[in-house]
Amino acid sequence: MDPRQDYRDYLWAPFTQMGDLAEEEPLVIVSGDGAVVTDNLGREFIDGHAALWLANVGFRRPEIQNAIAKQAEQLSWFPSFGGMSNNIAVELAKRLVMLSREEEMARVFFSSGGSESVETAIKMARQYFHLQGQAQRYKIIARRKAYHGVTYGALSATGVTINRRLFEPLVPGFRHINPPYCYRCPYGLMPEECQFECALELEELLLFEGPETVAAFIGEPVMGAGGVIIPPDGYWQTIERICRSYGVLLIADEVITGFGRTGEYFGGRHWDLKPDIMVFAKALTSGYLPLGATAVRKHIFEASLGHWGDGREFRHGVTYSGHPIACAAALANLDIIDAEALVTEAREKGQYLKERLATLERFPVVGHTDALGLIARLELVQDKKSKRPFPKEDLTGLWVSRQLLKRGIILRPLGDVISFSPPLVITREQIDKIIDVLSDVLLVLSGE
Ligand SMILES: Cc1ncc(COP(=O)(O)O)c(C=O)c1O
Asked: Within this chain, do residues 391 and 308 fall inside the same structural domain, yes or no?
């Protein structure tokens, strides 16, 4: 039986227009090795997107497989509720605190993925102010084009309009400012005349809302699913300064940017960011098992301290918080990141990818390319000079990604932005192959 038919007949896949799948070929992957995955027909693909921004150590790593098997034999699961836990969750919490010493994280709270960990961060921020008699400080400011997940709190922070519309009304108290999208600056400015107007918008909004009503600002150090938007130096420093001067908590959503992706261990380090709360998921286990974590600085944690029965404890937590098998996978994954210096690898190979991508700007249909470590973007345009996009209904980004797939390359379209986020173990030869194939497709799209 061809699993592609069962896909069409039984699965309801996320973010997928199932109606068109009757005529299309769904891709069903059955194995992976390094940066390469193989489908049910035996066809190989270079996975230029690390599955979903996360297979940082690559596929088929016996170190993680063995850690999972060993832990499953020892203890399948035990909860962390009510004064209990399991030794592996405790070990991973300590490891994450050590890893985030620069950011001064003091405590780690586990969940099962990114959305839940964002949800956790938002609730922590609201509870923090509640417990200090400032219940009116509940608003959360995020950015348009931000992606923070799909559960209601995380979705309310998300600024990708199409993800929000059909699920309204969303959670009250969320506001959005413009993103640092320099290629299409919302203020029509050139970098040399920019005073970080999009960051200063935060201050404007705070004054409009009343800073005493705002709990937190949340942002991805590099915006991912909204189109891989890499902020200019000075942007995050401005945001952080504004948060500090108005007593607003800063939440860094490191779900994509954590664990080496950008060429720093955490993405915020490029700008010396010192968030109050950090959110991790995805590459925490490189996808071997689902796991998310929310780390906080001391003051956030200490605000909840008291005694049984006083109701100050954090009354939040999913059943699988601190799942020992997932935590064992994470520990083995973090060992690999260290042992193979994958953060440095991401920085060096990212520079190579950035240079190779820049050569594609020779095509009239390529408006912009950029990269930071091994996260990168290529924006397609119909007219380079005016930056006029292709008509939306042409689905040009989707067309490009489908052409690449036919030629053995997986890259994701985010509208007309082609995004790159390969495993950090990708080789330079595999990067070359991606660029060569992409170049062939861009040649066709350019009508040359
Ligand atoms: C920055 C960011 N935050 C949160 C999430 C949500 O994570 P999950 O899909 O694991 O719920 C994502 C997912 O892509 C993300 O990119």
From this structure: no
385 CA from centroid of ligand 1 (Å): 34
Residues lining ligand 1, Cβ inside 6 A? 113-115, 118, 147-149, 220, 224-225, 253, 255-256, 281
| CATH code, 123 | 3.40.640.10
Is residue 397 a contact partner of residue 378, using CB atoms and an 8 Å limit? Answer: no
Residue with the smallest CA separation from ligand 1 atom 7 is 114
229 HSE (CA, 13 A, CB side):
22
pLDDT tens, 66-109? 999 999 999 999 999 999 999 999 999 999 999 999 999 999 99
Could you identify the atom of ligand 1 that is nearest to the CA of residue 292? 10
Percentage of the chain lying above the pLDDT 70 cut: 100
pLDDT in tens, 16-32: 999 998 888 899 999 99
pLDDT in tens, 351-382: 999 999 999 999 999 999 999 999 999 999 99
Select from 53, 120, 140, 148 the residue to mutate for testing ligand 1; criterion: most ligand atoms less than 8 Å from CB: 148
Residue located nearest, by CA, to atom 13 of ligand 1: 149
Closest ligand 1 atom number to CA of residue 151? 11
CATH number for the domain that contains residue 45: 3.90.1150.10
**Contact criterion met (CB below 8 Å) for 184 and 381:** no
Please name every residue paired with 9 in a beta bridge, in sequence order, or none if there are none: none
Please name the residue ranges forming H helices in 46-104: 50-53, 62-74, 87-99
Number of domains in the chain: 2
Same-domain status, 185 and 288:
yes
Span from the CA of 244 to the centroid of ligand 1 (angstroms)? 26
Q: What average pLDDT does this structure show over 131-148? A: 98
Res 23: pLDDT: 85
Residues 286 and 348 in one domain: no
User: pLDDT at residue 167 above 90?
Assistant: yes
Domain endpoint, select from 339, 363, 386: 339
| Same domain (yes/no): 405, 325 | no
Q: What integer pLDDT is reported at residue 209 of this predicted model? A: 98
Atom of ligand 1 nearest to the CA of 113: 10
Ligand 1 centroid from CA 255, angstroms: 6
Burial of 166 (C-beta count, 10 Å sphere; 0-12/13-18/19+): exposed
- Domain with 409 in it: 3-57+341-445
Please say which residue of 306, 339, 372 terminates a domain.
339
- My answer on whether 235 and 316 are in the same domain is yes
Residue range 170-218, pLDDT digits in tens:
999 999 999 999 999 999 998 889 999 999 999 999 999 999 999 999 9
Place of tokens 């974590």: 293
